[in-house]
Amino acid sequence: MMNNQWNMTDLRVFCQVAKRSSFVGAATDLGISPAYVTKRIAHLESALATTLFHRTTRRVLISDSGETAYAWARKVLDAAEELNQGVAGVKTLPKGPLRISTSLRLGRNHLAPILADMRRQYPELEVWLEVMDRRVDLLGEGFDIDVRMGDVHEPHMIAHHVARNARVLCAAPTYLAQRGHPKTLADLASHDCLMYRDRHQTFGVWRLQGPDGPESVKIRGSMGSNQSDIMHQWALEGLGIIPLASWDVAGMLRDGSLARVLPQYHQSADVWAVTAARLDQSAKLRMCTELLISQLQSGPYALDTSVV
Question: Which domains does the chain have, with CATH numbers?
């Protein structure tokens, strides 16, 4: 039976452990001992009569009950912060840690300069940007925002639309001059296709939208990677056909570095900013998410959606 004898300190410690997936990491961030972190988590688990984390020798994994508790804990902490600001009668600047994840090219070419400007505007923010060409576990890996392409399927995640986008099939003119243009989707089976294992696609199968709706084609190729920069370079060197994000390839299509292949086909992959908490529950999270969306839509580092 729950005794409900938890306090704000328990919630702050719990949320930091959830973000870092580490008792030691949370202790370092909060300036307290790991033993005290362990004590506070044990106290909160006892108060809620549930297991919040699954501990292994290598990492700490948030439980299903922990994910539910995290959403409510954030509401409580953010409401307390808003209360303090309201009573003080002043508008405080956003401060504290923000952990953001995204793919390599999106992060390097777009988010990094936007976040640099944001940090100059709000110097009390602590910004961590992690780039990886795979889908992240927002809660399990401790991120506040994940900027990604493709549909959001995880339960309890909140998706904020950033921009229209599609992956379009491309190849270098040198490749097409040597191998010819495929005329149908089935023709791809006899072409060299660059095998890219991105954040969620099935390796060796391309699923595309065409004139007759969704279609799949099994492709082959002798070169592949999970790193987007490598795949772009191989495509530019004429090594095969590849689906690339329209916002990332628009300039290459304009200058002729790459050419469209089977332009009637594409993969839907809009850009989203995904959060575990609602924006109205955190002024800091709301500011950062809204700024990212605004800048990616119309700022100097905006995504080029002219191909869509």
Answer: 8-88 (1.10.10.10), 96-164+270-298 (3.40.190.10), 166-268 (3.40.190.290)
Q: Is the Cβ–Cβ distance between 60 and 21 less than 8 Å?
A: yes
Backbone angles phi, psi at 139, to 5 degrees: -75, -45
C-beta neighbour count of 30 within 10 angstroms: 17
SS3 204: coil
pLDDT tens per residue across span 234-277: 999 999 999 999 999 999 999 999 999 999 999 999 999 999 88
Q: Are 218 and 204 in contact (CB under 8 A)?
A: yes
Are the C-beta atoms of residues 96 and 284 closer than 8 Å to each other?
Answer: yes
Tell me the residue type at 276: A
**Mean pLDDT, residues 101-114:** 96
Query: What value does the CA radius of gyration of the chain take, rounded to a whole number of Å?
Result: 23
Which residues are CB-neighbours of 230 under 8 A, at least 6 positions away?
Answer: none
Q: Tokens representing 173?
A: 């003119």
Bridge partners of residue 210, in order along the sequence: 213
- The one-letter amino acid at 83: L
Residue 240: CB atoms within 10 Å: 23
CA distance 304 to 254: 12
C-alpha to C-alpha distance for 148 and 167, rounded to whole angstroms: 13
Report pTM. Answer: 0.72
